[in-house]
Amino acid sequence: MGLINEDINVQNIVVTEQLNNPIDVNALGKFEKKGFKYNKEKFPGVFFHDSIDKKITFIIFKTGKIVCTGAKSMRAVNSALTRLIKILNKLGFKVKQKKELKIRNLVVTSYIKKIPRMFELAAMLDNIEYNPEVFPGIIYREKNKEYSAAILIFKTGRIVCAGIKNIDIAKRAISDFQKKIILNKNKDTNSQSLASQDFF
Predict the structure, then answer these.
(1) Of 152, 137, 150, 172, which Cα lies nearest the Cα of 105?
(2) What whole-number distance in Å separates Cα of residue 9 and Cα of residue 107?
(3) Which residues of the chain have pLDDT under 50?
(4) Is 146 helix (H, G, I), strand (E, B) or coil?
(5) Distance CA 71, CA 85 (A)
(6) Looking at 64, 79, 96, which one is the last position of a domain?
(7) What is the CA radius of gyration of the chain?
(8) What average pLDDT does the chain have?
(9) Distance (Å, whole) CA 113 – CA 100
(10) Strands 9-18 and 102-111: what pairing?
């Protein structure tokens, strides 16, 4: 039985798409009553919240690049993008997707089955940041030839994995993290000086 639950939940997908034509962001920003928000002095993109799923936010740039964040599935991303394109065309912006969707970041969550002792856990591994006065969680960074990821561990046992681009890599990152915990825990358990410590 593993220390970490095998089920993971997608919390956020950050995706980019490219439209076939540039967008006049100044003109688009004037449709504030339609939900488009633009302040060129603060940010070069126009913000828009999806009409169905309010957690999904689009940022539209003059180049035609669109950033989508807040969705929990690619199905939700595609549905929201379809709605956005229809709205843009109704407003007079003749655009369509180039179908160049790319996942830029994926945030997933899981949990450790036994509540960890944070300071002991932080001392077990390299590439760890833990300062509870600044941030309540342990930040573990993994970077190798196959992937890079950031894993956050909280005292409730909750785990957040970010910086990956697909579910398989997320599962791999969490699995590799678990193996390192078990390996180091076993090493410390076999050590006379640390034999009495229990990290979970």
Answers:
(1) 150
(2) 9
(3) 1, 190-197
(4) coil
(5) 17
(6) 96
(7) 22
(8) 89
(9) 39
(10) antiparallel
**CATH code at position 62:** 3.30.310.10
- Are the CB atoms for 12 and 27 separated by under 8 Å? no
Answer whether residue 7 is part of any domain: no
Q: Which of 96, 126, 152 is the last residue of a domain?
A: 96
Are 90 and 115 contained in the same domain?
no
Query: Which residues face 12 on adjacent strands?
Result: 107
Residue with tokens 């681009």: 165
In this predicted structure, what is the pLDDT of residue 115?
75
Pick from 158, 71, 166: nearest CA to 109: 158
Nearest to 28 by CA among 51, 46, 49: 46
Query: For 73-98, how does the pLDDT look when each residue is reduced to its tens digit (9 = 90+)?
Result: 999 999 999 999 999 999 999 999 99
Q: Which two tokens stand for residue 178?
A: 């678990």
Q: What is the pLDDT of residues 140-152, one digit of tens each?
A: 999 888 899 999 9
Range of the domain at 165: 104-190
pLDDT digits (tens, 9 = 90+) for 173-190: 988 988 888 777 666 554
pTM (2 decimals)? 0.83
Rounded to whole angstroms, the Cα distance separating 186 from 191 reads: 9
Q: Bridge-partner residues for 57, per DSSP?
A: 49, 69
Tokens matching residue 183:
């390996």
